[in-house]
Amino acid sequence: MPKVAIVTDSVVSIPESIIENLNIHWVPYYIHRGKEVLRDLVTIQREAFYKWLPTAQELPLTASPGPGDYLEMYEKLVNEEAVNEIVSIHMTSKGSGAYQAAKTAQAMIKDKLPGLQLEVVDTLNVSMCHGWMVIEAARASLQGGSLNDIVNIVKNMIPSTHMLQTADTLKYLYMGGRIGKAKHLMGTLLNIKPLIGMEDGVIVPLGQARSRKKAYQLIVDRVDAAVGEIGKIKVAYVHAAAYEEAEKIKALLETRLDCVESIIAELSPALGVHTGPGTAGVCYFPVEK
């Protein structure tokens, strides 16, 4: 066991093989589909969910884990795995209640387990941007990094880790109330492929194109311009039931930049419900070595 346990939640969307290899602990989100209450990646999996989603008459509601869910995970790590240091890493607090729920759990456990050191981090990011921070934290933990070292790694990544994605429609973001500052793009849904990103924890519009191919080229151009002379990145090609589209972006991007590590990752249902099937994009950060 590493000295510091890394905790996150299902919307991190890290491939299962990496989660297992890096000993990452996660708590599932909730999906309310009619009268059903589903647990993200526990009682509903990606393939079945994305096959059903386009047929939905009403968008399912999602909810972050509650304080009790995080408390249960923290106590399990302490009682069953003898952990006394935890870093708990969560998606943007401006789009989910997960961070606040984890902070509440932190306050609850302080009196019960005063010897536990627990840090809760708001990444102000989402998807595999959040995911990269968890991965790098877990790697540092396995290499013997201290709790403070790991927290600093994550916090230093927040301003330099970026998401760019596109989809056939913004309908799902709009229906789910997650569209942020990109609302004005709704009027041209039928005519464009919108490009969106995240700034300061909020979804923002970054451009538009007349086709997927042009949208992907715009994504690559923006990454290339942002990375500049550093030229090296770690990148996740993210998608929702659109693996072939992620591969197309990968082929374009990796002819332009030095990708020292790349991952193809599919969004979990609790995250993909807001983007809809067909979404594809990148989550990346520059590296200097």
Structure write-up:
The protein is of the alpha/beta class and 289 residues long. The protein has two domains: 5-29 and 64-159, Dihydroxyacetone kinase, domain 1 (Rossmann fold), CATH 3.40.50; 161-286, Hypothetical Protein Tm841, Chain: A,domain 3, CATH 3.30.1180.10. Helices cover 38% and strands 26% of the residues. It contains ten helices and 13 strands. A six-stranded mixed beta sheet has the order 10-9-8-13-11-12, with helices on both faces. A four-stranded parallel beta sheet has the order 2-1-6-7, sandwiched between helices. Strand 6, helix 4 and strand 7 form a beta-alpha-beta unit. Helix 3 (67-81) packs across helix 4. The mean pLDDT is 91.
Reconstruct the topology from this structure.
Layout: E1 5-9, H1 16-21, E2 25-27, E3 30-33, E4 36-39, H2 46-52, E5 61-63, H3 67-81, E6 85-90, H4 98-112, E7 117-122, H5 127-142, H6 147-157, E8 162-166, H7 171-175, E9 193-199, E10 202-209, H8 212-227, E11 232-239, H9 243-253, E12 258-266, H10 269-275, E13 280-286
Helix pairs in contact: 3-4, 5-6, 8-9
